[in-house]
Amino acid sequence: MDAIASREKYRQYVRPEAGLVSRRIFHDEEIYRAELDRIFKRAWLYLAHESEVPDPGDFVHVYMGEEAVILCRDRDGQLYGLVNSCRHRGNRVCRVDRGNARSFVCSYHGWAYNTKGNLIGVPGKTELYKDDIDQPSLGLVRVARIDSYKGLVFGTFDPEAPSLEEFLGDMRWGLDLLLDQGDLVAAPGVVRWNIEGNWKFAADNAIGDMYHAAWTHRSAMLAGHLGGNGAQSLAQYAPTREQKGITLLTAYGHGLNADFAEANEVDLGSPLAAWRLDPAIQARLGPVRSRVQRSNMNVFPNLFVNSGSRDLMVRHPRGPGRMEVRKTVLVDRNASEETRRMQIRSSNRHFGPAGMFEQDDGENWDQSTHGARSLAARDRDLHYAMKLGRARLTRLGDSPPLIEDLVNEHAQLWLYHCWAEFMDAASWPELRAAHTQPTDHFRCATT
Q: C-alpha 271: how far from its chain's center?
């Protein structure tokens, strides 16, 4: 058995019972390379929205970890994930972000592949190879499985992975906070940018950090970014204020936080709030989710979802100290063009590369990653013990078990606990056998 496969190797870096996480996991190159193999080659990863590839031949260029992948709809209507690497010399066969194609041709020697990834053309096949080449065995490497949930397309390289339905589990209840708001489609175009920082700090923030809002985003709030009086926004999100909301933790490391909106905190006259007045949508969401003002979610490992701005943001790892962000905004298919533009502008002001919140967060993740490398402090673990041992799981209406509390560090600990489980397991069968539930992690009691 190799060193990586030894049990408990990574569990030593995460101590949920004490609320401590080692700095090493945020900067160590060996750990990062193992993450690519144990997490990004194994988990179901978000690829794109179905509306980005509606027609036969449509494709988008995406990533699974560091792997460049072409997500393409074949002439039979089926989606395929193809590793963007020619089987001859490894060169890319697709060099654009999106489009429509009948084939993908390598610019190096001209090998051509169809939208299923099959090798269909080899220059000089007869003259140079003398027809002695096994074309069927030389197709592009395929993503093992592709599936979707309400328009969100996921893929996994691991044929032993559970179904997408099992992988998402109760997180579907959270995703529906966004996906049930209407007939949503991806706005044209994708925004991409790089951030210095470890990808896990971004996931840590996305899954449930409401403690940082009034401190990190103070200047944006005072400038009126959230509307109205800046001082009122600061008071609303003050960490010492008792805020009404929920924290949801689900199997395999997913989670969210959501704050409940008071009647005077939602502008029902805004076109962006039209879904709140639709009886059919409210019936689908039910009494609990209908009260949510906005929710931040992280689908393990690296998909950030915001139900308020309707953002889907994938933080692709680019080494232990860098990530590439790919952002898609969902808009209502039936909304007016002006309302769509309003949604996109709102999203970009908030979470775009020049967004008032995204710049604040990116600076924090960069500094936290630098701090993780500190020689003087490297043996001092990071503290994640807010409200440790005080969580109680309950059900609200039709909800899965959740914690009726907004500002805490339960979700971050759950993320790192599941990270260690993924890293220590040698296979999906081993991971499924060893995986624990939030009740085991937090010593919570269902009430």
A: 27
pLDDT at 126 (0 to 100): 96
Q: Are strands 98-100 and 58-64 parallel, antiparallel or unpaired?
A: antiparallel
Alpha helices by DSSP H, 244-336: 279-289
**Residues 7-27, mean pLDDT to the nearest whole number:** 92
42 three-class SS: coil
Structure-token pair, residue 12: 């030593």
Q: In the chain, what's the furthest Cα-to-Cα distance?
A: 77
Phi/psi at 127 (nearest 5 deg)? Answer: -70, -40
Question: In the predicted model, is pLDDT for residue 232 greater than 70?
Answer: no
Those residues with Cβ within 8 angstroms of residue 268's Cβ, 6 or more apart along the chain or in another chain: 276, 277
Taking only the tens place, the pLDDT of each residue in 200-210 is: 999 999 998 88
Element (H, E) at 327: strand 322-332
| DSSP state at residue 369 | H
Res. 235 pLDDT band, cuts 50 70 90: low
Q: Is the dihedral of CA 399, 257, 194, 11 positive or negative?
A: negative
- Cβ burial, residue 131 (10 Å; 0-12/13-18/19+): exposed
CA distance 344 to 339: 9
The answer to whether the beta carbons of residues 360 and 366 sit under 8 Å apart is no
Rounded Cα gap, residues 249 and 154, in angstroms: 20
CB 286 within 8 A of CB 398: yes
CA distance 186 to 274: 18
- The reported pLDDT for the residue numbered 227 is 65
Q: What is the CA radius of gyration of the chain?
A: 23
Helix or strand or coil: residue 214? helix
Q: Mean pLDDT, to the nearest integer, of 314-328?
A: 97
More confident residue, 312 or 394: 312
Q: Which domains are seen in the chain, by residue range?
A: 45-147 (2.102.10.10), 168-441 (3.90.380.10)
Could you tell me what percent of the chain has a pLDDT over 70? Answer: 91
Instruction: Taking each helix axis as running N to C, give the angle between helix 279-289 and helix 171-179, from 0 to 180 degrees, rounded to the nearest 10.
Output: 140
